[in-house]
Amino acid sequence: MRKLATTWCIRGGIFCLLAIVSSCQAVPLKNTNLNEVAKVESSAALCETELAAIWTNFPAARANHCEITAPNKLVLTISPENQPINKSAWYGFKIVPKRASIKHGSILYVNLKYAYGHHRYSPKISYDGKNWVLLDPAKIEILSKTNVRLSIPLDDRPVMIAAQEIFSNSAHNQWAENLASTTKSNIGKSVEGRPIYKLETRSGSAKKPYVFIVGRQHPPETTGALALMPFVETLLGDTVLAHRFRDKYGVIIVPNINPDGVWHGHWRHNINGIDLNRDWGPFTQPETKAIENELKRFKEGGDKIVLFLDFHSTYRNLFYTQTDGEPTRPANFSRDWLGAANARLGDNIYAFTREQSPNSGKPTSKNYMYSRYKIPAITYEVGDKTDRDAIALAAEIFASEMMKKLIEWNPSHE
Ligand SMILES: [Zn+2]
């Protein structure tokens, strides 16, 4: 057993991960929050027992109701923002122990009761909002699909517990602000007025075809964000390959499309209760409308687009691509790209599948971008439980192989 404490560092304007290994009983996770999670004004705890108070006064917190059943026991009801909805039951809360009441060995028993859906995410804990570890499985009792009991040892420190590492809007923003080789600008606002921003490579004088990358349509899908960052950093890197790539191509990244959902600890939707990844085409929401406006430049006679990637999370690592029967330009890109990456990664490092997924007619980003531009439009799905180091390593390799394929591509040969 080991513990991997991780710290973000800045090198050459690009964030990197510095891993420090020491021995302990926790399972390693990446540090995903660049700032200590900011406090939100809130007048009262959700509930208080004799031992501790439960707070939900921070970004991405979610616990809808608290019932105290004994001095050391409580039940937190976890509900989605609305129904029906995918069963991505997100939760996040902070336990603040009462120092005068707790003794050595004090335990708070917290039942997570799901009012909809079921237990999906193994709890992660953090004492500083930056470094997260998996809660020891011995402290998790799955009583049923909708009732899970956590045994939380209390000491004098507040502890945050969440479905996945909390990767807040401010963390996204700080990452974006410090990226090399790009310009950051706002392309719209969310329903609640939070900025939707893009990062765009500086093109120089030549017009270049673009790779378009989006992320965080679905707030709990933080492993997708953990892949997007190193993927993008690799494209923007100071390597020979990255320079050759950027000589030929531009990149636009919209890393955080649903900041209201991220803030409120939503399971999937924006604040209006809309699944943004079912709104590409209708573009009824300000978040997707910002994308629609940004895409207007890619029209006949305008800028060219060659590839679209949308980062998400699901139960395992996979890529939803066009089928081999759906022609794209570049031709056979997803097959060749993912094949090349697989040859380097192998199943031991990062097992994944390519799922040929025909256009279902749903207004998803993938279907919209393929229908409109006939480019490879790919959903990059990362497993909820995938090892965080493997996510980062694989993202770098996927990015490198993507760059190689696009550099090699000669449109006049098609
Ligand atoms: Zn998703």
Q: Helix and strand layout, with pairings?
A:
Elements: E1 3-11, E2 14-22, E3 27-28, E4 47-48, E5 52-55, E6 65-70, E7 73-78, E8 92-97, E9 107-114, E10 124-126, E11 133-134, E12 140-144, E13 147-153, E14 159-162, H1 169-177, E15 182-189, E16 195-201, E17 210-215, H2 222-235, H3 240-248, E18 250-254, H4 259-264, H5 286-295, E19 305-314, E20 318-321, H6 333-350, E21 353-356, H7 365-373, E22 377-383, H8 388-408
Helix pairs in contact: 2-8, 3-8, 6-8
Bound molecules: zinc ion (ZN).
Zinc ion is lined by residues 217-218, 221, 312.
Cα Rg: 22 Å
The number of distinct helices, counting runs of at least 4 residues, comes to 8
The major sheet is characterized as: 8 strands, mixed
Helix/strand order:
EEEEEEEEEEEEEEHEEEHHEHHEEHEHEH
Number of domains: 2
Low-confidence stretches: 1-25, 31-39
CATH architecture of the largest domain: 3-Layer(aba) Sandwich
Tally of DSSP β-strands? 22
Q: Shape from CA axes?
A: elongated
CATH superfamily of the largest domain: Zn peptidases
How is the quaternary structure best described? single chain
CATH topology of the largest domain: Aminopeptidase
Bound molecules: zinc ion
Helix content: 10-25%
Question: Within the largest sheet, what's the order of strands?
Answer: 15-16-18-17-19-22-20-21
- Helix-strand makeup class: alpha+beta
Calculate the terminal CA-CA distance, rounded to whole Å: 53 Å
The share of residues in extended strands comes to 25-35%
Mean pLDDT: 90
CATH class of the largest domain: Alpha Beta
